[in-house]
Amino acid sequence: MKKVLCIMSGGMDSTLVAYIMRSRGYEIVALHFNYGQRTVAKELACFREICEDLGVSEKYEIDLDFFKTIGASALTDHSIEVPTAGVEPGIPVTYVPFRNGIFLSIATAIAEKEGCSRIAIGVVEEDSSGYPDCRESFIDAFERAANLGTKETTALTIERPLVNLKKSQIVSEALKLNVPLHLTWSCYQNEETACGICDSCRLRLRGFEQSGVKDPILYA
Questions:
Q1: 217 is a domain residue
Q2: Which of 17, 19, 55, 129 could form a disulfide with 122 if both were Cys (CB 3.0 to 4.6 A apart)?
Q3: In a domain, 220, yes or no
Q4: Are the CB atoms for 92 and 129 separated by under 8 Å?
Q5: Residue 127 has pLDDT above 70, yes or no
């Protein structure tokens, strides 16, 4: 059976990507990163529940503590406040320097080991927080580099099916595929009830509102 390595945060976007890849007939190898983010325990719990719902038999949970040493992001440095005033233009302080590049590097190594022909990632360029490592041009360049840096018998394609979608379209696609959205988590700062005011919560809530459906998770 053809195999795909899915990078899964426990959030709505990467979860939908995993269900899309399953619908295309791929066996999923799941990969999750604990990188010192504020909601690390909640995201890990969501990842595990989603993997169980998907019937994933092979999963990786990788700890990357060095992100806290690097800092420079409100997600990993608790001395920097998570912005709650609304989504603003430009690159926000929640950007974690080159996070997706590092994630994809590790994913490439695991995909080569597991014999996966695909890596799938839930990057969204058009309707996201403006992170540079979510741009399709970056993913294209990384795919070329990954294939240059692996065995000749390794031929990887990086799937990014959501990259040009809006959040409302992501919600609609998730509903079509019966994705368990109640198991997903998007909040940047809370683990019990979502704050509703960080950039990630605002984008998620706007997507549900524009889709005309209620978000199933709890908000403060």
A1: no
A2: 17
A3: no
A4: yes
A5: no
Residues 79 and 68: their CA atoms lie apart, in Å, by 11
Residue 33 structure tokens: 């990163």
For every residue of 151-164, DSSP letters joined together read -TT---EEE-TTTT
pLDDT digits (tens, 9 = 90+) for 63-74: 999 999 999 999
Give the span between the Cα atoms of 120 and 20, in whole angstroms: 10
> Per the structure block, which two tokens stand in for 63?
């700890």
In a domain, 219, yes or no: no
First to last CA, the chain: 43
Strands (DSSP E) contained in the chain are 3-7, 27-34, 58-63, 118-120, 157-159
Instruction: Report residue 16's pLDDT band, with 50, 70 and 90 as the boundaries.
Output: very high
Task: Judge residue 218's burial from the number of C-beta atoms within 10 Å of its C-beta, 0-12 exposed, 13-18 middle, 19 or more buried.
Answer: exposed
CA–CA separation, 113 and 10 (whole Å): 23
Stretch 136-154: mean pLDDT, rounded? 97
Within-domain flag for 105: yes
List the domain range (segments joined by +) for residue 148: 3-211
Per the structure, how many domains does the chain have?
Answer: 1
